[in-house]
Amino acid sequence: MEFEPLDQFRQRRKKRIEIAEKGIDVYPRKYHTSHSIEAVLAEFGERTGPELEAAPVQVQVAGRLVALRPHGKAGFGHLQGQGRRLQIYVKLDEVGAEVFDLFRALDIGDIVGISGRLFRTKTNELTVRTEKLTLLAKALLPLPEKWHGLEDVDTRYRQRYLDLIANPEVREVFLKRAAIIKEIRRFFDERGYIEVETPMMHPIAGGATARPFITHHNTYHSDLYLRIAPELYLKRLIVGGFDRVYEINRNFRNEGVDPLHNPEFTMLEFYEAYADYRDMMDLSEELLGRLAITACGSKQVPYGDAIIDFSHFDRLTMAEAVAKYWPPGASPVPTADEMVQSGQPRKLAERYNQSAASAGKRPIHIAASASDGELIAELFDEIAQDKLIQPTIIYDFPVAVSPLSKRRADNPDFAERFEISIGGGEICNGFSELNDPEDQESRFRDQIAKGGDEAPKQLDEDYIRALSQGMPPTGGEGIGIDRLVMLLTNSHSIRDVLLFPLLRPRSSERTEAEPPQDASTPTQSQHARTAENK
Prior knowledge:
Layout: H1 5-21, H2 37-44, H3 49-54, E1 58-71, E2 74-81, E3 84-91, H4 92-95, H5 97-104, E4 111-120, E5 126-137, H6 153-158, H7 160-166, H8 168-190, E6 194-195, E7 201-202, E8 214-217, E9 222-226, H9 231-239, E10 244-252, E11 264-273, H10 277-296, E12 300-303, E13 306-309, E14 314-317, H11 318-324, H12 336-339, H13 344-358, H14 372-384, E15 392-398, E16 414-422, E17 425-432, H15 437-450, H16 461-468, E18 474-480, H17 481-488
Parallel strand pairs: 3-5, 6-10, 14-15
Antiparallel strand pairs: 1-2, 1-4, 2-3, 4-5, 7-9, 8-9, 10-11, 11-18, 12-13, 15-16, 16-17, 17-18
Helix pairs in contact: 7-8, 8-10, 11-14, 13-14, 15-16
């Protein structure tokens, strides 16, 4: 008989009361296990029935009951733990009436401990012959309908605990994520970098171009900004003599949500004194190749319909990339040299827009005040970015969109900055850090004067003061860990690689797993280009 969720809750709650009345602790404080389910399968999964009879193996395991098949005076079930399943067998004659009554009172979703010997059934499945059964937690809510194939996206993201129970492949994504972060730490520690922690609440929003979240400190009577980037604090440490630093940091940007963006996200940032942007390019190629092997066992990684080859990185200037992918409908194809000539980016943008209009495509925005550099960046975003499937380093960005980068010595309109694009999106951004305090102050003031929701509102005078103490030549970089994990797990939404992504407040509609509330139920409580997306 099928029950509505509220009926299920009431029925399970009644069972809990009945079990407790028998003197059984429904929520005991501890349970000792001899093996995890994963360890039982790894250590004894190859043993045959006769081998288990000849050398009996006693185990004590715990997990969630995900299958239950009672048959008169005996019954089978499956426990799940660590993403693996192990069968249990309970027989009245072997466990006694009290334990068997408890077994019959169990529901799918309950967490139990089982003590017994391993054997093989007639179907050759490794099974625990139960000698003792302990209830460890009574599940008052049922798993959702067809929980073993849970596909409802909203339920999966909003109730990740159900997603992890129902979909073992989801667990694997987050195990890979943990392995990737562990390997990042190992990589930088081996190279003499020091892991540091910098503030998450800033008196001035800076380090990137983005709209911040604002909070208020009551004692200091001042507004603070949740970190949009740790960059300026990390470079203060370079000034202070920490020559190699890195931070795996949480950033917060009050921006839209799409498959590549979540308002709260994780970045890796690292800085090395006496290095430049080309050193950062080389280091990044080595790091990304190593992380591919960590996550996938190979530098050839499947992503969608493509195989991403992390053993080779193309290198193109931003102008070269635009020329390479220039659409045929906007012919003639400009050369990279032509593109960087004064006034040419505006003419090329207008020509592209004419072609886009005739083809029914979205034109790029050409602001009257837009500089040549800003228009080159706009053309790159529209024409080339999504074509960069294989690992590609795009370098020599216009200074107009790189306010924290050192200028090129031979062409001051361009910066020693690069991005790495893979799978059609940018995942890394690095450069030779600007260490001239007067040039940096001038660029900050230009940003503030230009205005806009995402531009800084005040000058970070302390950062200019730090640069005035002298910062050595430095290479720095930021890598989006969420996007990198997406690539290395063949995931196509950032929400698939975040355990608890931010979601819109839910409507009055409820999932099947959540009962309506009443007195007897528990209370349940576009991508805008970032000038320095580090």
